[in-house]
Amino acid sequence: MAQAEYVQEALAGLDPAGQGVDPALPLYATTFVVVDLETTGGAPDGGGITEIGAVKVRGGEQLGVLATLVNPGEPIPPFITVLTGITQAMLIPAPPIEQVLPSFLEFISDAVLVAHNAPYDVGFLKAACAKHGYRWPNPRVLDTAALARRVLTRDEVPNRKLGTLAAYFRTATQPTHRALDDAKATVDVLHGLIGRLGGHRVETVGDAIEFARAVTPTQRRKRHLAEGLPKIPGVYIFRAADDRPLYVGTSGDIATRVRSYFTAGEKRARISEMLAAAERVEAVECAHALEAEVRELRLIAAHAPPYNRRSKFPERMVWLKLTDEAYPRLSVVRNLAPTDTAYLGPFRSRQAAELAAAGFHDAVPLRQCTHRLSRRTTMPACALAELGRCPAPCEHRISPEEYDDRAATPFRTATTSDPQVVIDALLARIEVLSRDQRYEEAAVVRARLAAVLRAAVRMQRLAGLTGIAEVAAARRAPNGGWELALVRHGRLAGAGVSPPGVHPRPTLEAIRATAETVLPGHGPVPRASAEESERILSWLERPETRLVEMSSGWASPIAGAGRFRDLLTKAENAASRQLSTERS
């Protein structure tokens, strides 16, 4: 287990997200430390290193050399002596690895580490650091063996062994299975490979590291789409030849994020298909991350890009409302009318709304039939009345006033303020079913309870924000100054950043003067999608965000659904555990 975990960490160290050197640094200006190790041939357990050879180069010039034998503290197998010529007698006076590491780590600082079959060498070095208490600096690592597999064809070299590549590039030093000779040979191999990279549009150290990894031909062919993009927060749009948006995304650094689509780390099939169809990438600069997130949502909603999965078709949201009748019932609708006063939502699907409706039907005696009932004439009762699940208003067994008090009022109260009555009824039903060992039915009711609570909590949070005509908020920008947002009825109306060292008030007033006019409307999300208002809520609720000004108070019901958040979490966790058990 220790060896498996260790190997995984070693491979992770080859990720281009290593530290130290800027990935945008040109290859000719990059400092490389080419390293080679000789070992006892065992597993990387923190020891076993018998020799280290390292050569520091930049721009084709040698800057320094580090070479030393290392006492591994264990016998050398005979076949290693035959292979390398290193004997036990040679290593007895050599320093142990814990004395060599400080000098070696200093030697490789601020440089890109290069090795042939890098996972092997990096693996031993990381294990030695971990064993002896040294922090591995996690440098960027370039593997010449992997790079050769990408650059050279089988017609040029039969394999990618160091000796084969040294012969192909006619290196000044031939590999001899001694660390310094092999490191010097790898230096010449590295320079030979770099000379071949220009034809592949690989010019920076980050490009070289990524090129060495297993990217697809489409990614290599289309990586020029990431060129020239700004390193700013905003939205990026992949467009087809006919300028149709294919995919919309957001990032705090557009250039870095778009480049990641052309790396080996991007393995999504749909993104590969999207890249094949993309012809250009458009960047939309935003003041800060919140504006970028909102613009992304609006662009996805407006264009429904085929390769975006989330946030499309906000108009398909549905509501669960109480009909305006003598004996009201629950109805799933697409839109709310100005006359609708009792409703819950929005829900992302009709199935979610129907699940919440079933929860209310379990808790209160709301009728489930779709007939329009009259106060004067009766209709035959359905089976639910015979089962005691409906008070049979169709036969006038209950007055409109009593029906409203027992069935309709609990729904109105649960959605706008206190869902205690509904929650208590559902919990009591779950307890009865559990006591009778009807666990599957209890799980169904638990899912309905979660659906009711989730929707009520969400709607009451949204209503608290969207009822405010204007909210001005600020938070510290990463590079100084303030990120500013102006929110009107839950919609982002304006955004900006005040410069460092300057009072943010003039910037805020300029944002207010040019902000979008947002009129009030009906419902908890009158002028924006629910997802946009929720993104704004998350930004406003962060501890570092300051509320600057508000046109009115921001409040939630004191006995509202929010106080049942812990219960909702327990219900969702229980459902998740049950699903996991069923799948296993």
Automatic annotation (TrEMBL):
It holds the Pfam family GIY-YIG. PROSITE patterns: GIY_YIG (PS50164). GO terms for biological process: DNA replication; nucleotide-excision repair. SUPFAM superfamilies: GIY-YIG endonuclease, Ribonuclease H-like. It comes from the Bacteria. GO terms for cellular component: excinuclease repair complex. Keywords: Exonuclease, Hydrolase, Nuclease. GO terms for molecular function: DNA binding; DNA-directed DNA polymerase activity; exonuclease activity. InterPro entries: DnaQ (IPR006054), GIY-YIG_endonuc (IPR000305), GIY-YIG_endonuc_sf (IPR035901), GIY-YIG_UvrC_Cho (IPR047296), Ribonucl_H (IPR013520), RNaseH-like_sf (IPR012337), RNaseH_sf (IPR036397), UvrABC_protein_C (IPR050066). Residues 231-309 form the GIY-YIG domain. The keyword Hydrolase applies. The keyword Nuclease applies. PANTHER family: UVRABC SYSTEM PROTEIN C (PTHR30562:SF1), UVRC/OXIDOREDUCTASE (PTHR30562). This is DEDD exnuclease domain-containing protein. It comes from Micromonospora globispora. The lineage of its organism: Bacteria, Bacillati, Actinomycetota, Actinomycetes, Micromonosporales.
